[in-house]
Design brief:
The chain has 619 residues and is an alpha/beta fold. The model has no long low-confidence stretch (mean pLDDT 95).
Length: 619
């Protein structure tokens, strides 16, 4: 056997460089690059091999370990899980900073390779700088904190372990059912140790995501359930995008005349104006889709976990005859809530179901009802997003302005706070067919404040030819904004719209709706000795971005046009109404105190109990 003697760090990087894939007919590295902040736990051994592969796997300097890992997660999502990036940290706080990003990737089933330095396996210098000691178990380090938020976790204590561990880590990143973060802890001494690796381990390999086909018996059972439907509803989830099954979904819906609702992760599967589109579903959804869900007797859920915001905490589906057909690559998701499972790739499953259903179609009156309700919802949306003289402007009007500025293929991105709901309910997918629709990235699986700007950086790396519109609230901006500098330095332009509502206004809304008084969410309601109005324009300019403040929707339209023409990241700051939200009647379960001296809290608890009685019982 021919061998090559390499350190563990050198072997890890050489293996990554040998993994390739095919995108649109062209071979490209499976790893699109990575982000690194070097420290004593990784700089001496990892920087050398990474510097040698910059032409194929570029390494970008991050400003914060959490944000660089979030950028890597967003890259994986924008690439529809066909490629991934890595994030490399030193030991101690550098590692723990990435735990939140691992949670985002895990909750959203997105690929990212997380690499962190670790303490010495021989323990001779213990305790080392940044080591957290556990008196009863010296084998524990801070890297064990990644175990709950990693799909694959390993600590490489001998270089030879890479032979078994690296292929498994890469397989997880490509697996449609198990996709999520892979984590490798890299002890400082082991990074430097050499081993005679077989040369075949580093052979050029083409890799691709698996596309599991459905079981014939499951297909037959699912088709039999659909044929009984008088009021079917097709729910498009994120799995439709990851399977690149948008066209297949549209064709299936058209042939069988089934109305389509979209989840938060499944937004923009259909063009906004498509006659089968009924809008987004759930607690951040359209009244049209939610009304249909309340009457549907068969729900065909494709590529979705059906999380609580999509289902109104399982209060939306009210038919006693309800059957759920769950199409999902993950068995775990397909079996939820007593569903009829169809475990398969979304595209393969839709093709099999289409063949099994043959010429079956949903009743015409059901589709007519769906179209009438969607038309009414769109009329209300048009009124909300229309420019007016509101001072301050509403979130819906800001969404409308960004929507007007976006071209087919552009990405809009947000996460956490009030913007996910405003974007989900008011955004109209830009494009005329599934091939031209601009992606909508609403990170609401982990609902991570701070994802927005970091995520925009990662998306622009994945989609350098298209504009990326980042919508972020003032609260999230203050939590994580350092990658404005990153985007300017690296030339990955973004258009960032900061909606300043004076604090954490959406949580203030929940606080008040649950009967509490406003407390510690809005800046005006928190403990302070001096009121401060943040100058987001000055801050963004200090990080090298272009920036301006606007006061009206007309001014925002002009600013967005200037930002589109600019050569670098632009930040646009606008004050928005703290209390003007797009209404949504869907119930969402939160804990309300059963006992309180406050009459308004007791009233809220009673109202929430009424919603609980509508919940579907399932597992």
């Amino acid at each position: 056997m021919r061998t090559v003697r390499l350190t563990m760090a050198q072997a890890l990087v050489r293996y990554l460089a040998a993994q390739w894939t095919v995108i649109d007919g062209t071979e490209v590295p499976l790893c699109g690059g990575g982000f690194a902040i070097f420290g004593h736990g990784n700089v001496t051994c990892m920087s050398e091999p990474l510097a040698a592969v910059q032409d194929t796997i570029p390494t970008w300097r991050g400003q914060n370990e959490q944000s660089m890992a979030l950028a890597a997660v967003a890259y994986g999502k924008a690439m529809k899980r066909r490629r991934f990036m890595f994030a490399l940290s030193s030991i101690g706080p550098g590692a723990t900073n990435m735990v939140t990003a691992a949670g985002v990737a895990h909750a959203n089933r997105l690929p990212v390779l997380l690499l962190s330095g670790d303490t010495f396996t021989h323990r001779l210098p213990d305790p080392v700088l940044q080591q957290v000691e556990h008196f009863g178990n010296p084998s524990i380090t801070v890297n064990d904190a990644f175990r709950p938020v990693a799909r694959f976790w390993d600590r490489i204590t001998r270089p030879s372990q890479l032979l078994a561990s690296l292929p498994q880590a890469i397989a997880v990143l490509l697996d449609p059912a198990d996709c999520g973060p892979a984590f490798l802890a890299l002890p400082q001494d082991v990074q430097a140790e050499a081993y005679d690796f077989p040369e075949s381990f580093f052979a050029h390999r083409l890799r691709a995501a698996r596309r599991p086909h459905p079981d014939p018996a499951e297909t037959a059972a699912a088709a039999a359930a659909i044929r009984t439907a008088k009021r079917p509803l097709l729910v498009s989830g994120g799995g439709v995008h990851y399977a690149q099954a948008e066209a297949a979904l549209q064709a299936f819906a058209e042939r069988h005349r089934i109305p389509v609702a979209e989840t938060i992760a499944g937004r923009a599967a259909l063009p906004h104006a498509h006659p089968l589109n009924t809008g987004s579903l759930g607690g951040l959804g359209a009244a049209s889709a939610n009304a249909l869900a309340g009457e549907a007797d068969v729900v065909i859920a494709v590529g979705t976990r059906l999380q609580d915001f999509v289902t109104g905490s399982w209060s939306l589906f009210q038919s006693d005859e309800l059957k759920i057909v769950a199409v999902n690559a993950a068995r775990f998701d397909a079996l939820k809530h007593q569903a009829i499972p169809l475990v398969a790739d979304a595209g393969a499953a839709l093709a099999a179901l289409d063949a099994a259903l043959a010429n079956w179609q949903a009743p015409a009156d059901w589709l007519a009802t769906a179209q009438q309700r969607y038309a009414a919802w769109n009329a209300a949306t048009e009124a909300r997003i229309r420019p007016g003289n509101d001072q301050p402007v509403t979130y819906a009007q800001v969404v409308g302005a960004v929507n007007r500025a976006a071209a087919p293929g552009d990405t809009v991105l947000t996460a956490a706070g009030g913007l996910p709901g405003e974007l989900n309910m008011n955004w109209r997918a830009v494009g005329t067919d599934s091939a031209s629709l601009g992606p909508v990235d609403v990170e609401f699986g982990f609902s991570c404040m701070g994802y927005e700007i970091a995520g925009g950086w990662g998306v622009r790396m994945a989609r350098p030819e298209r504009e990326v519109f980042v919508m972020v609230g003032d609260g999230s901006y203050l939590i994580m904004n350092c990658d404005l500098l990153s985007s300017v330095m690296t030339g990955h332009k973004m258009i960032v719209v900061v909606c300043d509502n004076g604090g954490f206004a959406v949580i203030d809304r929940l606080q008040r709706n649950s009967g509490n008084d406003s407390f510690n969410n809005l800046l005006a309601d928190c403990r302070q000795t001096r009121a401060v109005k943040v100058d987001f324009v000055a801050h963004a300019r200090a990080l090298g971005a272009l920036a301006e403040r606007v006061d009206s929707v007309a001014d925002l339209d002009g600013a967005l046009a200037r930002a589109r023409a600019a050569d670098r990241t632009t930040v646009i700051s606008i004050d928005v109404d703290t209390y003007a939200w797009t209404p949504n009647e869907a119930w969402w379960e939160v804990g309300i105190p059963e006992v309180s001296e406050q009459p308004r809290i007791r009233a809220a608890a009673s109202a929430w109990a009424e919603g609980r009685r509508k919940q579907r019982r399932g597992v």
